[in-house]
């Protein structure tokens, strides 16, 4: 019975994973609650506060404490007593970058001279990493960062990193570290790489050693000559591909990943889509999510791509820069993407009929992000059209105010929308999200939530249960 309660309690407290304040309160309830919540509280190093760092110093073996003492590094600890738990063993997400940063900040506040700060930070970082490697039985996520050629691969890591599934790293991290990692880790499913200066030979070895690589994320800011070497060892079994700022290479290589379920391209300019005229003819029979953020390729090319791959798409996000948009893309979405559930596009102020066609063609739509302002639909037009044309399974509206657009929605217009929404047949309560772009000025905010009357109406319909979720962000 006690075990059953502990299992149920664990399920409940898992929902507090992102709420460190309340989770910390759970530590103080009783012994059982403490035992359950402490494992969640210490799971992610990125959530650690100063008190956590001091507790880790308490957990260091005597050998490590002696190394710190001999280098004049004295960090006060919460207590002189042995720690209640083996806290380091609970960590599942470890970040070298965060270890360096957090302990550098801690040491800097101890008034260590700038000449000693960098070296002392490295010493502490190495000892803390050794502690984690020695105590963690199965690390799931690892984030590498700066100090790339000074962090060693410790023997203790062979057990700790054996079941690693997610890795975030810079391309110029120590080649020797990557090579050692490739001897231990063969089941990384998600690899996230920031391309910097050069690509370590060890990184290529590590990538080629993976048996179950499913997700690959790459951010590139400068042109590299050996990038092809990394791309060539990526397995054809990838199901998620995310390319960010990759404006220096042909993207036609994407065509060989025929098992892709999610493709995310994030570029600043149309010209960055090098060789998309070839990619438009590629076939991805399992593609379900297409995200083309910021700029997007020429519409005539993108339309052919959607004709070839739109049938199974469930989510489609097309560009944030739509000054050059025309009606053809939205009509193509209505024609070639009948199974969409989430859509993010722009409708110009003369495209109300096009919105009707999209809702009619995409009958499974549940969520839509709509641009408002400038040449796009007004809020009033967008909301009226959604009530009029959306189907009973539609539940989420995201209004995105482009550039420095100010909300012009009158309170009576908002009230009218909610009255009409309440009267329609719907399967779910409404989710309303407002995204304001660059709306903060010296005289304060003047976005949607800056209108007191509108917010009174929002709160009224939240209390009535019409709105399940409301969010306004900048």
From TrEMBL:
Q: Could you tell me the superkingdom of the organism this chain comes from?
A: Eukaryota
- Please name the InterPro entries in this protein's record: Leu-rich_rpt, LRR_dom_sf
PROSITE patterns xref list: LRR (PS51450)
Q: Which Gene3D superfamilies match?
A: Ribonuclease Inhibitor
Q: Cross-referenced SUPFAM superfamilies, in alphabetical order? A: RNI-like (SSF52047)
- This protein is called what? F-box domain-containing protein
Q: Native species of this protein? A: Glomus cerebriforme
What taxonomic ancestry is recorded? Eukaryota, Fungi, Fungi incertae sedis, Mucoromycota, Glomeromycotina
């Amino acid at each position: 019975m006690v075990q059953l309660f502990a299992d149920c309690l664990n399920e409940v407290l898992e929902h507090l994973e992102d709420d460190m304040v309340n989770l910390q309160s759970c530590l103080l309830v009783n012994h059982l609650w403490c035992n359950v919540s402490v494992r969640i509280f210490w799971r992610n190093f990125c959530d650690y506060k100063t008190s956590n760092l001091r507790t880790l110093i308490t957990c260091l073996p005597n050998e490590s404490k002696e190394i710190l003492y001999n280098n004049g590094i004295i960090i006060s600890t919460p207590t002189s007593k042995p720690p209640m738990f083996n806290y380091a063993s609970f960590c599942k997400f470890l970040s070298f970058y965060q270890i360096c940063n957090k302990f550098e900040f801690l040491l800097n506040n101890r008034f260590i001279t700038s000449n000693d700060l960098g070296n002392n930070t490295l010493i502490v970082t190495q000892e803390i990493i050794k502690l984690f490697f020695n105590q963690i039985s199965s690390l799931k996520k690892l984030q590498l960062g700066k100090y790339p050629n000074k962090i060693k691969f410790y023997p203790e890591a062979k057990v700790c990193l054996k079941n690693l599934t997610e890795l975030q790293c810079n391309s110029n991290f120590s080649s020797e570290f990557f090579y050692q990692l490739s001897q231990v880790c063969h089941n990384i499913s998600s690899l996230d790489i920031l391309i910097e200066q050069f690509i370590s030979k060890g990184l290529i070895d590590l990538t080629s050693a993976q048996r179950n690589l499913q997700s690959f994320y790459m951010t590139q800011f400068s042109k590299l000559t050996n990038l092809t070497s990394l791309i060539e060892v990526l397995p054809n079994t990838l199901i998620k591909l995310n390319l960010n700022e990759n404006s220096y290479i042909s993207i036609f290589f994407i065509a060989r990943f025929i098992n892709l379920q999610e493709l995310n391209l994030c570029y600043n300019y149309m010209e960055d889509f090098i060789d998309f005229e070839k990619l438009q003819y590629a076939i991805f029979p399992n593609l379900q999510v297409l995200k083309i953020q910021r700029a997007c390729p020429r519409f005539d090319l993108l339309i052919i791509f959607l004709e070839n791959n739109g049938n199974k798409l469930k989510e489609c996000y097309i560009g944030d820069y739509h000054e050059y948009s025309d009606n053809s893309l939205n009509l193509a979405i209505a024609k070639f993407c009948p199974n969409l559930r989430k859509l993010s596009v722009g409708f110009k102020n003369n495209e109300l009929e096009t919105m009707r066609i999209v809702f009619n063609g995409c009958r499974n739509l549940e969520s839509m992000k709509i641009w408002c302002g400038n040449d796009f639909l007004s809020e009033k037009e967008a909301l009226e059209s959604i009530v009029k044309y959306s189907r009973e399974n539609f539940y989420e509206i995201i209004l995105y105010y482009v550039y420095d657009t100010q909300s012009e929605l009158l309170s009576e217009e908002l009230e009218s929308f909610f009255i009409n929404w309440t009267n329609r047949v719907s399967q779910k309560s409404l989710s309303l999200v407002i995204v304001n772009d660059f709306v903060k000025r010296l005289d304060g905010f003047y976005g949607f939530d800056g209108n007191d009357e509108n917010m009174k109406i929002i709160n009224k319909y939240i209390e009535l249960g019409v709105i399940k979720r409301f969010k306004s962000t900048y």
